[in-house]
Amino acid sequence: MLWGTILPCVDPRGLAGFYARLLGWVVATDEPGWVTLQPPGGGAAYLGFQLAEGHAVPAWPPPDGHAARVLRFDVAPADVPGAVAYAVSLGARVAPQQPEPDVTILLDPAGHPFAFAGHG
Questions:
Q1: Which residues pair with 26 in a beta bridge?
Q2: How does pLDDT run across 83-114, given as a tens digit for each residue?
Q3: Contact 47/25 with Cβ under 8 angstroms?
Q4: Which partner for 37 in 25, 77, 98, 104 could form a disulfide, CB atoms 3.0-4.6 Å apart?
């Protein structure tokens, strides 16, 4: 059995490359409009990137009075400042609004939010 999450985007191969470098995962599937990553050595988890022509960049944070319509990945690296700097070097941006003091929200090159949190 596999489990995973799919991110819609206009450049599946490019976004998959960003997350492959960020997470150290490997390409498991690479087809036109569809790319998946898995942890090295395989496993049941995957992260998919699907072509979505005209995909709108997610709003983070969601506008006041609107429910969040985005999925946020949380990652707990040993060195949060180092992980943030590395992610930015790969093309991520630090989100302009940071709602939690011990979590850093970043936006991937397609605008999907993800977070680095310290070990608590």
A1: 38
A2: 999 999 999 999 998 888 889 999 999 988 99
A3: yes
A4: 25
